[in-house]
């Protein structure tokens, strides 16, 4: 099979396509013929050597995949073979024509939901559902969604709006603010303008912080008393510098989302069901063939990507 390997940390060009033996499923594991592989911003940070963790090299990157089950290990129902599925590899092995997915993170794709849409919802949908639940957003509250044109942010904008919130979207540039508005944001602001807080029109009750750094800190300062800051990402390369003392001084709370495996499965299934029913629309802004994984990483790092970026293997769903 063809697979993309990372043998040294560095620039996107360190990702190289190679012929690789096809993996063999072990117990409670499915062999998935990959049609689409998800790419996350964190994966670009890991590739560069600046991510939140350093995998042992060499490795095939990629955690989220979608495709068709071709074989199962012992302990799995043989009727899964031939099913359309999405799932997580455990952090490695996704950028390939075949990948292994453990049973506990394997999901059948609901009828009526396209496979590419299911891959786009897989990780970002459960993350968006998790942070929305952690924030306990109430009807009529004003919420600020950072990186609202990204994979998680675009879904979070829709979920928060559906929950009855007034959504203020932060995004970088005209293309991204326009997309956020199309997804239902009541107000879309370009955070590349250093004066963006002046456009808010007042404080907010909740900040969904997926960027961190200076943007996250400035967003924190827009919270009303009793507000909540939910930090779940560091697209800037660093977490928002906050302390409990900072929060107490302003009369706000710092919420750190956490969930067990069963909760994460519930959030994933609910996001897939919402997408299948048309209540949640994933935005797939870019698709790259497997051999152009380096180009995909370059686009994401340059902040030019809209919504979700997928790798395609050229396999057909049968």
Total helical elements: 8
Named CATH architecture of the largest domain: Alpha-Beta Complex
What is the name of the CATH superfamily of the largest domain? Medium-chain alcohol dehydrogenases, catalytic domain
Number of domains: 2
Which sequence of SSEs, written as H and E, runs from N to C?
A: EEEHEEEEHEHEHEEHEHEHEHE
Largest sheet: 7 strands, mixed
Query: Helices and strands: which structural class?
Result: alpha/beta
Residues in helices, as a percent range: 25-40%
- Could you name the ranges where pLDDT drops below 50 across 5 or more consecutive residues? none
Residues in β-strands, percent = 25-35%
- Through-space gap between termini: 18 Å
Average pLDDT works out at 94
Radius of gyration: 20 Å
Question: What is the CATH topology classification name of the largest domain?
Answer: Quinone Oxidoreductase, Chain A, domain 1
CATH level 1 class label of the largest domain: Alpha Beta
Describe the global form: globular
Question: How many beta strands in the DSSP annotation?
Answer: 15
């Amino acid at each position: 099979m063809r697979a993309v390997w990372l043998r040294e940390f560095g620039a996107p060009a360190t990702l190289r396509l190679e012929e690789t033996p096809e993996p063999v499923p072990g117990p409670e594991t499915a062999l998935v013929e990959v049609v689409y592989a998800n790419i996350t911003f964190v994966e670009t940070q890991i590739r560069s050597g600046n991510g939140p963790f350093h995998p042992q090299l060499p490795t095939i990157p990629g955690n989220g995949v979608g495709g068709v089950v071709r074989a199962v290990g012992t302990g799995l129902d043989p009727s899964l073979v031939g099913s359309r599925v999405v799932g997580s590899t455990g952090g490695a092995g996704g950028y390939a024509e075949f990948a292994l997915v453990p049973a506990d993170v394997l999901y059948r794709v609901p009828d009526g939901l396209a496979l590419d849409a299911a891959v786009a919802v897989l990780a970002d949908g459960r993350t968006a559902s998790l942070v929305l639940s952690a924030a306990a957003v109430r009807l009529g509250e004003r919420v600020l969604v950072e990186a609202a044109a990204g994979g998680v942010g675009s879904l979070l904008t829709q979920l928060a709006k559906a929950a009855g919130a007034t959504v203020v979207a932060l995004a970088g540039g005209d293309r991204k603010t326009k997309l956020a508005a199309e997804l239902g944001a009541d107000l879309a602001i370009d955070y590349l303008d250093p004066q963006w807080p002046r456009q808010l029109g007042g404080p907010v009750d909740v900040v969904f912080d997926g960027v961190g750094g200076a943007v996250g800190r400035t967003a924190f300062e827009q919270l009303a008393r009793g507000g909540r800051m939910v930090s779940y990402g560091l697209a800037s390369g660093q977490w928002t510098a906050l302390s409990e003392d900072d929060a107490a001084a302003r009369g706000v709370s710092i919420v750190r989302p956490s969930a067990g495996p069963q909760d994460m499965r519930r959030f994933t299934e609910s996001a897939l069901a919402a997408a299948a029913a048309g209540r949640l629309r994933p935005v797939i802004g870019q698709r790259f063939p497997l051999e152009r994984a380096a180009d995909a990483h370059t686009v994401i790092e340059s902040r030019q990507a809209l919504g979700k970026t997928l790798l395609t293997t050229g396999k057909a769903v049968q």
